[in-house]
Design a protein that fits this description.
Length: 376
């Protein structure tokens, strides 16, 4: 009996010790969050877990940007998907626009989850698997969107400046291979979200965050640095340099050929590059700046306010893409106008036909009534 009692005491002490260890780990995680984490769930920034009674101005501004991106971007990208995927013949250009629109469209479809997350004061009620899946899908489509913007700039340059090379190698088969590679690379870059993203509950408040490591600060620092710099180099620096070089050479070449057409083309290209810079530069600068929080909390409040707003600007680029990149392609514009005209013509024809049938039916009914009265 004494042995059973001793084993029970040992078991109780063991369970108590486990609970203490778990509580210490939770407290450690929360202490770490207070030092260097912020609200930017999609792009591997985590939530700063101070208890707040209401949303601050930065969060309200970010919510407005998220909502605008969703309201404007979903129908805009859906229209591009409808025409390029179902109404037009498949060409290299339409494949680029189709996949760009798909990446932006899927990205924006999951945006309401993040809007709810911010609106509920950064409380994640959707579970661990959706935390992982949401982050992975968002990162996958974010990188795919940026990569397709880069490929479109390269394709425009090669097609207009090197027509012989373009005619030989710019084929649907090669385009499909490039599309597959883009989605694969984007998936590999987004893959860590499936491993690192977790949920943590504290005082009835659940967050979706990156758990880089439970206790080793050096591993946390190394992984945070690696993912941030990979995101910056592959998702911003190389695409930006590629677009600037391709569009600069393209603008110079067009200017030599025709000054009249170069003006419109130049301003369209300038708008595309400026939109990319304005939307993505603040986010990546704040992401790199956030790395300093591992060593000092001097700019804690600046980052806490800046990261949500810069993330909102990055989201907003997904609703600008359908407008800006359609403007570059004259063929795209001509096809779009022709498709809209054909759709309106078909709709009016159906309305006119149904109206004519209705009138004929009414006339026939009236005629039959008159005959019945005469017969009576």
């Amino acid at each position: 009996m004494q042995q059973v009692r001793n084993s029970a005491l040992v078991s109780h002490s063991s369970n108590h010790a486990k609970q203490e260890i778990i509580m210490e780990e939770i407290e450690y995680v929360f202490d770490e969050f207070e030092n260097y984490t912020y609200a930017s769930e999609y792009f591997q920034q985590e939530l700063e877990l101070e208890e707040r009674s209401r949303l601050g101005p930065a969060q309200w501004i970010s919510l407005v940007l998220y909502s605008l991106a969703f309201v404007l971007g979903v129908p805009g990208n859906a229209i591009v998907i409808w025409f390029t995927g179902f109404k037009w013949e498949k060409t290299v250009a339409t494949l680029w626009f189709l996949n760009l629109a798909v990446a932006d469209f899927v990205f924006l479809l999951f945006l309401p989850l993040y809007i709810s997350y911010v609106a509920m004061n950064f409380h994640w009620p959707f579970g661990t698997w959706l935390c992982k899946a949401n982050s992975f899908i968002a990162l996958l489509n974010m990188f795919a969107s940026v990569f397709f913007l880069t490929v479109i700039s390269l394709d425009r340059y090669v097609h207009l400046i090197h027509p012989v090379f373009s005619q030989r190698h710019r084929t649907l088969r090669n385009a499909l291979c490039a599309i597959g590679i883009i989605w694969l690379v984007a998936g590999l870059i987004a893959g860590p979200a499936l491993y690192f993203r977790e949920t943590l509950e504290h005082n009835n408040h659940t967050i979706c965050y990156n758990n880089f490591h439970q206790s080793d600060d050096s591993i946390v620092l190394m992984r945070h640095h690696a993912l941030t710099w990979i995101k910056f180099v592959l998702g911003y620096l190389l695409p930006l340099l590629t677009m600037i070089i391709c569009y600069s050479l393209l603008a110079l070449q067009v200017k030599r050929r025709a000054a009249l057409t170069s003006s419109r083309h130049f301003w369209t290209i300038l708008a595309v590059v400026l939109a990319f810079i304005i939307c993505w530069t603040p986010f990546h600068l704040f992401s790199i700046w956030e790395l300093s929080i591992h060593h000092s909390s001097a700019y804690h409040h600046v980052l806490q306010a800046g990261l949500p707003i810069s993330t909102g600007l990055a989201f907003f680029n997904s609703c600008l893409n359908p407008l800006l990149y359609v403007l570059i392609s004259k063929k795209f514009q001509a096809r779009f106008q022709a498709s809209v005209a054909e759709l309106l013509k078909h709709t009016l024809r159906e309305v006119s036909w149904s109206g004519t049938v209705s009138e004929q039916y009414k006339h026939s009914e009236t005629k039959n009534l008159c005959l019945l009265e005469i017969m009576q």
